[in-house]
Write a structure and sequence with these properties.
single chain, mainly alpha
């Protein structure tokens, strides 16, 4: 009886060892597959890895002056580019002098363009850093974000235009300009914001440093120009002299 009991214990122990061995082989296989997948994802990135990708702790260890020196060049370039907004405002000074209500919405539209682009840039950068998307997905992502931006602009334009006229007392023609501008501005912001991170990745630049300020600069300039061009067209529809 004792011999039979010992034999059954030995058999159970052997089965347990076999199960453990099989599980160990499965775990090793999964680890190998995961490493291979990560390697493939990095190779599809098209461009050298950024410093943060090479060493995740590099940002934490970097002194403040090194971070500032890394950023100041790009920020200076985009600051110079933002001077184009002053050129645009000066070019449409005659329109502003005749329709001063247009000036009320310049900060609103600039802020909205930045907010829309900021959301998109954050989403794309997060997806790129996690490896869930690569530069091969660029066209699909840009198209999706552009359509999303247009829909957001249509919804907000439908809300803000009537509110500006019936609640804020803004003239009908200026409210129409705001209504028409918001969808175009949102589309431009979402398109640029989703394109720039991929462009940076392709040419080997760090999108975390460049994407957001580049997006803000381009959206401010293109949005302001679109606003005044739409205003001129809408005022012509209303038969107003400029």
């Amino acid at each position: 009886m004792s011999s039979t009991h010992q034999s059954s214990e030995a058999s159970a122990l052997r089965e347990l060892k076999e199960i453990i061995q099989k599980q160990k082989l499965e775990i090793d296989s999964l680890k190998s597959a995961l490493k291979e997948k990560q390697s493939i994802t990095r190779s599809h990135g098209h461009g050298p890895p950024t410093q943060q990708e090479e060493d995740p702790n590099l940002y934490l260890a970097s002194p403040f002056y090194k971070i500032a020196l890394t950023r100041v060049g790009w920020l200076a370039l985009f600051l110079c580019s933002l001077s184009l907004t002053a050129v645009i405002m000066n070019g449409f000074e005659h329109t502003l002098s005749r329709q001063i209500e247009l000036a009320y919405f310049v900060p609103l539209l600039a802020g909205h363009g930045g907010n829309t682009g900021g959301q998109t840039v954050g989403s794309v950068l997060s997806a790129l850093s996690s490896g869930s998307v690569t530069t091969q997905d660029a066209l699909k992502i840009i198209k999706k974000e552009a359509m999303s931006g247009m829909l957001v602009g249509l919804l907000l334009g439908t809300l803000v235009g009537p509110l500006a006229h019936f609640v804020g007392g803004i003239s009908r023609h200026v409210s129409t300009v705001v209504f028409c501008t918001l969808p175009l501005l949102s589309t431009i912001a979402a398109t640029l914001a989703s394109s720039i991170p991929f462009a940076c990745k392709i040419v080997g630049l760090d999108p975390a440093i460049i994407a957001a300020p580049a997006m803000t600069t381009f959206v401010d300039v293109s949005g302001l120009l679109s606003y005044f061009l739409i205003a001129n067209k809408v005022f012509q529809w209303y038969g107003l002299e400029l």
